[in-house]
Amino acid sequence: EFEVEDVEYIRHGDRPLLARLFKPSGRGPFPLMVELHGGAWCRGDRLNDTVINEALAKSGVAVAALDFRMPPVAPYPASLADINYAIRWLKARATELGSRPDLVGVMGVSSGAHQAMLLGMRPRDPRYSAVALPAGAAAVDAGVRCVVLCWPVIDPLARYRYARKLKEGGKPYPDLVDQVLPCHDEYWRSEEAMAEGSPVLALERGERSSPGIRPRPTPGGRSSGLSTSSTRKSGKRKHGEIRGKLILDFAATAAYKNIAF
């Protein structure tokens, strides 16, 4: 029903980065989803979400599950540069992969979902798009058709501050706290970077997202987009604390179910 292949999409020195391709059988063109694993920005690889990616391929969606640089190799924004490059690389080769450049989307899990959202909002950010495609490649950007978020760390700074508050209060607190905090420190290096790389805070600062990304209604009729109204009504400090708690709780649920967060 589908083929699986590992390909090298970029190399840093003597270190290759691989994409695992899940290619449905048939002529296509098929939607192509760039899939980003979770792991608190510091753990995991392209094999994390194989169960999800196989199901997508069986349903007629091609998938490219990525490896990308993580600490201790490199902190933020190195992973975003790798993923941005991979999206452009895949769009330039979409036809030979049985897809089309305008059918490429990005999907992520937890910290991977955070990166998916940030890339969806900033496809032409010069830091993320700094690595040029090989000479002669098609001139494409990293804009995508859609962004799919699976329990995203949508506000890294809020989660970090909430986890730190729990730790400072002493035991008992969730074991996840002691896993989350070091990864935040290794990947982001500072709270200023967490704030800069927070999709929620970027929107609250007035940063405009990519024109191709629009909120879609959920089955209950409510928009799945991000809103800043609750910040204005309840105050930034309280809203940030609630957001951090929700993000940490989602991660704890995922970890309990043996899903990478």
Model description:
By secondary structure, this protein is of the alpha/beta class. The chain contains nine helices and six strands. The chain has a six-stranded mixed β-sheet. α4 packs across α5.
Instruction: Give the strand tally.
Output: 6
The percentage of residues in β strands lies in 15-25%
User: Shape from CA axes?
Assistant: globular
Helical stretch tally: 9
Outline of the structure:
The chain is an alpha/beta fold and 261 residues long.
Name the features.
261 residues; alpha/beta; globular
Tell me the layout of helices and strands:
Blueprint: E1 2-12, E2 15-24, E3 32-36, H1 50-58, E4 62-66, H2 78-92, E5 104-109, H3 111-121, E6 147-150, H4 156-168, H5 176-188, H6 191-196, H7 199-204, H8 229-234, H9 236-256
Parallel strand pairs: 3-4, 3-5, 5-6
Antiparallel strand pairs: 1-2, 2-4
Helix pairs in contact: 4-5, 4-9
